[in-house]
């Protein structure tokens, strides 16, 4: 930096000296007398024919021979010395060389900045992608806590398999649908294309995982992987292309879905509802005498899963900036704050509601309300402020309670509450963009011609159109194949398999042993230890010691 500054100063000095703005004073000024000047310059030295734009020309009256050897005390009005043009030319060459070096240095610094910014953005996106992938552990823990112990291994394995199968389906087919190019699986993609594929792949897997918890404990394993492949490979990429790509028609209409309230959660929530309707409720789920036996096995494990999901959600929302340089970190900071405020508001509201209406603190409602608050702010997390996030959190509680009422009213068995959390809160979050976001905020975040000058009514219409497209994609692309699969291969396990649990049916063993099994093992262990203690005590008895001593003496005497 100091070198650049010195070169710029030198460049300015040389430029001024070349233009004559800073003349160099002589070391010794010659003495000129008035008589000498008057005797050497005639009155006709000014040419009357000179143009006004030209300076007057001085003509000496002396002969040329007298000018060859001027007197030391006489001022010579002749032209500058011959070395002046040479110095000016050298200065011009030096200035040009400095300008060239300066441009080369500037180009080098611009390239360095671009590479540095790309590296910082790449690290930021990959870090957020890791957080999104870690959300799979949160889904696994939440669903494990919500199911019965006899289905634990099955639900965890489904979370692994839907990630594996969904990733392959998106990599092979889905990314080509989103980007309208097939460089990822079959070409030579750039680093930017690979990074985009990684992030979108994780988003598609999140959509598929929403369905796994809703249909837990009764959905066939292979048939579930087929549904995952369809969702990750075709349906989610199609909606993502419409909403997030610049050539998508919903994007060009001005739809705002910053991190996926519609693209991820509404689509996954509608798919979960359709899957629950198709597969039916668990056996005796709505029997009043047995309803309590279907409660989740562990609120501790479910709470751990909720915290992991909340933690990963920061990568989900903040990572959607896809950049952290050029003041994009300010957008990421606002997204982080809104992603915190909305679920906190939802937790407090549902806590007061449950205490007021149910006279207790409903633990499962609090967990789901937190997730609903996260879903509700996902679309507008970058285009609203903290007060808007509060509105999103309150509305998410209302949407969640409305969704649970629908499930109970029509006896739709949704094990983890995916429909009220993801579908209802996702629809609310998509629509709420029109109420909690301003035109200036939307324009500053998107910065394109499609998101300029939208009024609240126009934005509301576009957001509702996006929700309608998501529901239509699920009805046509997911429910129709699901019904065809139901009437051909079948999607539900047998009653015997459901009765003994899918851990025994598919994996030949339980993840957690029952209380009866643990009691029997403890009794066996207790009897074994008691027998060993008796043997040790018998070996230490006095009679046995005297008998062993007499045997030793007799052997020694022989």
Any overview of this molecule?
This protein is mainly α. It contains 21 helices and no strands. It has helices at 2-19, 34-40, 64-68, 83-146, 152-179, 183-186, 191-214, 221-244, 249-253, 261-279, 299-318, 328-358, 363-377, 386-410, 418-436, 439-446, 456-486, 495-500, 502-507, 515-539, 542-557. α12 (328-358) packs antiparallel against α13, α13 (363-377) crosses α14 and α15 packs antiparallel against α17. The radius of gyration is 41 Å and the shape is globular.
Note the main attributes of this structure.
globular; single chain; mainly alpha; 558 residues
Outline the secondary-structure elements.
Blueprint (H helix, E strand, L loop, with lengths): L1 H18 L14 H7 L23 H5 L14 H64 L5 H28 L3 H4 L4 H24 L6 H24 L4 H5 L7 H19 L19 H20 L9 H31 L4 H15 L8 H25 L7 H19 L2 H8 L9 H31 L8 H6 L1 H6 L7 H25 L2 H16 L1
Helix pairs in contact: 1-4, 4-5, 4-7, 4-11, 5-7, 5-8, 7-8, 7-10, 8-17, 10-15, 10-17, 11-12, 11-13, 12-13, 12-14, 13-14, 13-15, 14-15, 15-17
Number of separate helices: 21
How many strand elements? 0
State mean pLDDT (0 to 100 scale). 84
Low-confidence stretches: 16-79
Share of helix among residues? over 70%
End-to-end gap: 104 Å
Question: Shape, please?
Answer: globular
Task: Classify the beta-strand content into a percent band.
Answer: under 5%
The biggest beta sheet reads: none
Would you list the SSEs in sequence order as H and E? HHHHHHHHHHHHHHHHHHHHH
Using the CA coordinates, give the radius of gyration.
41 Å
Helix/strand-derived class? mainly alpha
Compact overview of the structure:
The protein has 21 helices and no strands. With 558 residues, it is mainly α.
């Amino acid at each position: 930096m100091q070198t650049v500054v010195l070169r710029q100063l030198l460049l300015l000095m040389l430029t001024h000296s070349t233009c004559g703005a800073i003349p160099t004073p002589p070391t010794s000024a010659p003495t000129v007398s008035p008589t000498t000047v008057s005797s050497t310059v005639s009155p006709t030295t000014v040419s009357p024919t000179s143009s006004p734009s030209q300076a007057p020309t001085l003509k000496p009256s002396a002969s040329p021979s007298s000018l060859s050897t001027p007197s030391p005390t006489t001022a010579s009005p002749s032209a500058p010395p011959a070395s002046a043009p040479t110095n000016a030319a050298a200065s011009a060459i030096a200035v040009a060389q400095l300008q060239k070096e300066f441009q080369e240095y500037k180009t080098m610094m611009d390239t360095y900045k671009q590479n540095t910014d790309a590296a910082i953005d790449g690290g930021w996106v990959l870090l957020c992608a890791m957080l999104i992938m870690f959300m799979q552990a949160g889904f696994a823990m939440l669903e494990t806590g919500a199911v019965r112990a006899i289905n634990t291994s099955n639900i965890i394995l489904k979370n692994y398999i839907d990630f594996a199968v969904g990733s392959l389906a998106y990599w092979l087919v889905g990314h080509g649908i989103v980007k309208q190019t097939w460089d990822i699986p079959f070409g030579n993609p750039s680093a930017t294309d690979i990074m985009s594929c990684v992030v979108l792949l994780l988003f598609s897997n999140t959509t598929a995982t929403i369905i796994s918890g809703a249909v837990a404990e009764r959905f066939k394993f292979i048939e579930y992987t087929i549904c995952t492949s369809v969702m990750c490979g075709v349906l989610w990429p199609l909606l993502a292309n419409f909403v997030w790509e610049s050539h998508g028609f919903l994007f060009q209409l001005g739809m705002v879905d910053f991190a996926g309230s519609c693209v991820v959660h509404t689509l996954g929530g509608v798919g979960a509802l359709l899957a629950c309707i198709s597969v039916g409720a668990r056996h005796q789920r709505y029997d009043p005498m047995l309803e309590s036996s279907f409660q989740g096995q562990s609120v501790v494990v479910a709470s751990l899963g909720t915290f992991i999901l909340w933690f990963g959600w920061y990568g989900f929302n903040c990572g959607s900036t896809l950049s952290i340089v050029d003041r994009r970190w300010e957008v990421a900071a606002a997204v982080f704050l809104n992603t915190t405020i909305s679920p906190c508001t939802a937790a407090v509201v549902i806590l007061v509601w449950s205490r007021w209406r149910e006279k207790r603190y409903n633990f499962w409602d609090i967990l789901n309300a937190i997730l609903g608050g996260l879903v509700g702010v996902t679309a507008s997390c970058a285009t609203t402020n903290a007060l808007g996030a509060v509105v999103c959190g309150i509305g998410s509680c209302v949407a969640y309670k409305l969704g649970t009422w629908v499930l109970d009213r029509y006896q739709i068995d949704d094990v983890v509450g995916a429909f009220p959390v993801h579908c209802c809160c996702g629809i609310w979050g998509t629509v709420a963009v029109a109420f909690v976001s301003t035109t200036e905020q939307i324009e500053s975040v998107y910065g394109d011609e499609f998101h300029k000058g939208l009024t609240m009514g126009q934005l509301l219409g576009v957001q509702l159109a996006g929700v309608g497209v998501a529901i239509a994609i699920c009805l046509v692309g997911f429910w129709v194949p699901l019904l065809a699969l139901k009437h051909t291969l079948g999607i539900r396990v047998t009653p015997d398999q459901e009765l003994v649990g899918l851990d025994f049916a598919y994996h030949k063993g339980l993840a957690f042993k029952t209380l009866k099994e643990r009691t029997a093992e403890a009794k066996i262990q207790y009897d074994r230890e008691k027998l060993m203690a008796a043997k040790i005590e018998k070996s230490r008895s006095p009679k046995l010691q005297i008998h062993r001593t007499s045997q030793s003496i007799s052997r020694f005497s022989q």
